Amino acid sequence: MRERAAVDDAGTELRWTVEPGDTVTVVHVLGDIDLSTEHEFAKAVRDGLDRPSPVVVFDLAGIAFMGSVGLRVLIDAHHEAHEAGRVVRIVDGSAFVRRIMEVTGLGEVLSVHHTLDEARSA
Description:
Layout: E1 3-7, E2 13-19, E3 24-33, H1 38-49, E4 55-66, H2 68-83, E5 87-91, H3 95-104, E6 111-113, H4 116-121
Parallel strand pairs: 3-4, 4-5, 5-6
Antiparallel strand pairs: 1-2, 2-3
Helix pairs in contact: 1-2
């Protein structure tokens, strides 16, 4: 596993690690996803999608804030994976992410799970 981090001028930080696997790759993301960290979040998502496993899980349990840019990146990842016959799953382990998924209705579109264990075994 390798860890990457980005800190912008305002001190907003986004950290991520990739846990590769034969059947499931997990991308753990910590921090805030907003305009200043969108590029780094997109790199984290790309790193997960570039792995050969048929399932990619984005573990957002450590996300304190996620703006619309983060949602767009997840939707794009979902569409790309679907077109390739793969699956993207989201862990909404933080109350903030869970609420965003409910309010936007994306919980009905994306494969969203409350724990990493649920997402791995779904």
